[in-house]
Amino acid sequence: MTKVITENDTQQDARGEKKVTHERPVVKEPDFQKIENSSGFRELMHKKKKFLISTTALFLGLYLLFNIVISYTNWLDAPFIGDITWVWVFAFSLFAMTWILVTVYMKKAEKFDAMAKATLKEFDYDEEDTK
C-alpha cells in the first residue's frame, strides 16, 4: 500500500532535518463509471429492480385491495369459523405476508451483497482495504 506524506505530516528536528511524524494510506478510489457499465453491475441492478418492483406491487396491491374491499363491498362479511369473518382472515394474512416478504428480502439482500462484492473485486476494489 502506498503511503502519502504531506508537509503537515513532517516536523523539523534540532538539526533542521524533516522527520515524518504521520503516514496515511492512500485510499484507492474505484472507477465508478467502469463499474456502472460492467455486466456484473447491470445484472445486479436488473435482479434487484425485478425483485423490488414485484414485491412492492404485491404488497401495495393487497393492502389497497383490502381497504377497497372492506370499504365498498360486503364480500368479507361472511363467517369463516363461528363469529370470525373473512375480514379478520384477510387482515391477519396481511401481517403474515409482511413477515414473509421481509424474510425473503433479507435472503435476497445477502445474495445482492455478494454480487456487489464480486463486482467490486472485479475492479480490484475491496471495501475492507479502505477502512
Automatic annotation (TrEMBL):
<keyword id="KW-1133">Transmembrane helix</keyword>
<feature type="compositionally biased region" description="Polar residues">
    <location>
        <begin position="1"/>
        <end position="11"/>
    </location>
</feature>
<protein>
    <recommendedName>
        <fullName>DUF485 domain-containing protein</fullName>
    </recommendedName>
</protein>
<feature type="transmembrane region" description="Helical">
    <location>
        <begin position="51"/>
        <end position="72"/>
    </location>
</feature>
<dbReference type="Pfam" id="PF04341">
    <property type="entry name" value="DUF485"/>
</dbReference>
<keyword id="KW-0472">Membrane</keyword>
<keyword id="KW-0812">Transmembrane</keyword>
<dbReference type="InterPro" id="IPR007436">
    <property type="entry name" value="DUF485"/>
</dbReference>
<feature type="region of interest" description="Disordered">
    <location>
        <begin position="1"/>
        <end position="22"/>
    </location>
</feature>
<feature type="transmembrane region" description="Helical">
    <location>
        <begin position="84"/>
        <end position="105"/>
    </location>
</feature>
<feature type="compositionally biased region" description="Basic and acidic residues">
    <location>
        <begin position="12"/>
        <end position="22"/>
    </location>
</feature>
